[in-house]
Amino acid sequence: MNARLQTEDFDVAAEAAALRNGRTDIGAIVTFTGVCRGTEAGEPIAAITLEHYPEMAQAEISRHVAEAERRWPLMGVTVVHRYGRIEPGDNIVLVVTAAAHRQDAFAAAEFLMDYLKTRAPFWKREERPSGSAWVEARETDDRAAARWTRRKPEAAE
To answer: Is 2 helix (H, G, I), strand (E, B) or coil?
Structure first.
């Protein structure tokens, strides 16, 4: 497992290659890169600023990576999340999952992104021509993450 928080950009291809690193048992590598948009709701965005508590964010991301590793037979996971000021077109987050089969790699990557959007302790402020404002959580993101919640078995009667 490799989970990092950093201000610097990352190289998607290099991160995927490092996860693979000559292994021949990996049958699928899935990468997801989140990129800063230049518009939101039709209004230009000059930049976003992501703030966080380093130890809390690292622990929470690591906890969800460990959960993904428990749920799917993964052969490797890398998560890189940037913080600080990020401009349109810049990378924000990277999730790379490796597995023997594509279904596991895709599901784990999607699970991780859903949880990063809703549970990782980051606060986002958007800079717009009309001013800057903190971004509220979205119900659609919460619904996406909720689908991964395991149901507890019902008690026998």
So the answer is: strand
Write down the pTM of the prediction.
0.87
Q: Which CATH number fits domain 2-141: 3.90.1150.10, 3.90.550.10, 3.30.420.40, 3.90.1170.40?
A: 3.90.1170.40
With tokens 């518009």, the residue in question is: 39
Q: What token pair was written down for 51?
A: 């703030």
**Which distant-in-sequence residues (6+ apart) come within 8 Å of 94 by Cβ?**
10, 12, 15, 31, 32, 33, 34, 78, 79, 80, 81
Question: For residue 134, which amino acid is it?
Answer: W
Q: Which sequence spans correspond to the domains of the chain?
A: 2-141
Task: Tell the burial category of 121 from Cβ atoms under 10 Å away from its Cβ (0-12, 13-18, 19+).
Answer: middle
- Residue 103: which of 64, 71, 65 has the closest Cα? 71
Q: Output the DSSP codes for 106-139.
A: HHHHHHHHHHHHHTS-EEEEEEETTEEEEPPP-H
Those residues of the chain that have pLDDT short of 50 are: 151-157
Q: Decide if 109 contacts 69 (C-beta within 8 A).
A: no
